[in-house]
Amino acid sequence: MIKQFKPLLALLLIGTLNNCKQKEPTDAFTFIDRNDYVIDSYKGLFVYKLSKSKQLMDGYYVVGNKVQKWEEFNVKEGLLNGDYLIFHNNGEIFSHSKYSNGKKHGIEKTYYPSGALKKETPYNNDLQYGTIKTYYESGQLETEATIEKGEIIESATYDIIGNITRQLFIRDGRTITQDIRNGKVFFESISSNYDNFEAVKFYNDDGSLKVFLRMLDEGDEHYLIELDEKGNEVKRIDMKENPQEILKYQQYFVNG
To answer: What is the pLDDT of residue 16?
Structure first.
């Protein structure tokens, strides 16, 4: 008990001075070192065991040494249940996750060393779902992405003052990604979700279409196809036979 008492006092002091906002451990907890436990894998789940006895861990644990706390987590019969916290070196929370029977379940939050919220990721039985958000350290929203069945179906990126700079969405079975400058679409990539259609669009400053290009592979043949605004073919260039003609379009990508 005497050996455990001193490090516990040090941890409580650090928590008071450096991290008044952080979650306090429950009244009943066990203080351990990093080397006091091991993690095994069983049926896709991480199982926590005590290093010496190999017994399944059970209860609330605080992991640290005399001067620093690294982790806090709750375990039930070897599986994470409830809160799981990891800390920055300065004592602020790095991440706060929720677990149910060894699987992430709930919103996982990560933080900057300053304590400001950095990211929110919702989980359902270990799978990401819903809307993931990241933040600038100032608190301004940086990105948000909506996930369905493990796939991003829409997303947006913002600059520090809240202007949208990039967005992704699905329309008519095609995934469209747009780069936005000064509130207008500058570049757009298009990828079909059901066939081999791949294309890019470049726009002028006034929002009008500058060029619409499609890349097409047909066996050993590779083509660059220029399309009009309606998607009708205007010109088809064989990349092998007319490499110099292809170079004329390089300006759009270089200037972009």
So the answer is: 41
